[in-house]
Amino acid sequence: MKIEGSDSSDFIIEGPDNDTIDAKKGKDWIVAGPGDDYVKAGEDNDRVECGPGHDIAYGGGGLDTLIGHDGADLLYSDGTYGPRVIPHSQEGDDWLDGGPGKDILVAGDGADTLIGGEDGDAFVFRYHDPMVGTTHWYTTVKDFEPEHDRFVMDAGGFGDRDLFGANFINHSRGFPGEFVDTFYKGTAEGAHGEHVVVITDRGFASGAAAANAIDHEAAGDIIVYHDEETGGATLAYVDSANHANAFAHADNLEDMWDLNSLTAANFVFI
To answer: What is the pTM of this model?
Structure first.
């Protein structure tokens, strides 16, 4: 069933069908219900509650809350959908909660919060510095589990389904969906140009400090380090010699020892 909202604030509740919902503008509250649903929340501050089934939901401009349910859900922070079809909307600080199931959560261009929930989830990043020109911050991942979750970097020009604005550099083992080609985990002094470096011997106050501590880093590399100021693990993107910008933070990897559980398979490029 196809349902369209208005440009005012709508409250949309749907039943067990496979629905296509376009809420349009306004501060909307959408309850998709059971079934495999496709939801576009549109502009303004919206709330989308998916039901059981394999759902796809897009936020849009504003501060959105997207909540998955049982099933493998695909949640987009902003309104981007398809391979380079619609430009990403203005930045909004969104909350995405996948719930049970193997979910894909796509961070937008604001300071988003992502919760994968149970099962193996993929946390997808398009922008290595999503808020350039305003206040740089990062996406917060609340429950990254190294044994079955993935950080996924969308590399510009890699594969045939780039999200709009993808600007990571491809460092996969060869094909979209494969993990990083060179990986290092250990002391800062032992890193020598690997494309993903996990530093396990000390913490840092910034990505730049972490980049300065390793050798032969190059633009496009990713450094994971223990954040001395906030705790947890921070992911930073190297943009120039001895400098890197944070783009993601895993809150639940609280101790430096937790970084030892990360492997090359946790870092995927598409």
So the answer is: 0.87
